[in-house]
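Private note to self, pasted from the team thread so I don't lose it. Backbone tokens:
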């Protein structure tokens, strides 16, 4: 049986493969509200909102949190913008204020699900997706009230936009080493390194995703994701 290592979802913003000399301008829609104008909740506010029900914060003894399992808004979430507005209310205790305007919706599950529904957002700098950086807001199936939020968003240094190894070169490297490449996607890999993320459509090795350094004129392979045969 074949099993795949979980990979980052190839979300919006795929590049056409043409030569790029810098990070392209973002095409993402701006937030409909200012994060600074949203009232910030404290831990005690969230505890009071849940009226004695157990609320889990992770880490439990931290000053900032990457997960809150419990109601953190009284407002029903009807769309992605509502979900981000709810997240903005806990932006300070989760330390994600500066990242919220960098998010794009990647996945929205059905509101008819009995287990509730999720909004999954990915973090972008310009049109470059930040690998491994996402925000999940989960809402109750009947109430629509957000009751779970999980963040792997990242604070990043200023990124040098110059690209020294093009999408075409990266695709050719992948073709030579691993198999037929899909369209390269510009990403930020390992915190601050611009890279081309390329899915391998027809493999001649066990590699099905490769990350190629866009800053190295020689096209260094930064990492790969591989298929495991059980």
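Design output:
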């Amino acid at each position: 049986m074949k099993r795949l290592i979980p990979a980052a979802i190839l979300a919006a913003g795929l590049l056409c493969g043409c030569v790029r000399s810098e990070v392209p301008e973002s095409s993402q829609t701006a937030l409909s509200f200012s994060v600074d104008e949203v009232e910030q909740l404290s831990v005690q506010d969230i505890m009071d909102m849940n009226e004695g029900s157990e609320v889990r914060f992770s880490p439990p003894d931290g000053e900032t949190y990457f997960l809150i399992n419990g109601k953190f808004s009284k407002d029903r979430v009807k769309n992605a913008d509502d979900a981000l507005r709810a997240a903005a209310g806990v932006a300070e205790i989760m330390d994600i204020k500066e990242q919220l305007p960098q998010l794009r919706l990647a996945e929205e599950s059905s509101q008819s699900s009995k287990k509730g529904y999720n909004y999954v957002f990915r973090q972008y700098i310009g049109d470059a997706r930040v690998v491994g950086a996402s925000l999940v807001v989960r809402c109750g199936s009947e109430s629509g009230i957000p009751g779970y939020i999980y963040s792997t968003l990242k604070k990043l240094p200023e990124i040098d936009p110059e690209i020294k190894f093009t999408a075409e070169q990266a695709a050719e490297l992948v073709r030579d080493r691993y198999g037929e490449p899909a369209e390269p996607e510009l990403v930020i890999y390992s915190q601050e390194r611009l890279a081309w993320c390329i899915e391998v459509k027809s493999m001649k090795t066990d590699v099905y995703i490769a990350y190629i350094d866009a800053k190295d004129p020689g096209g260094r392979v930064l990492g790969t994701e591989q298929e495991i045969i059980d």
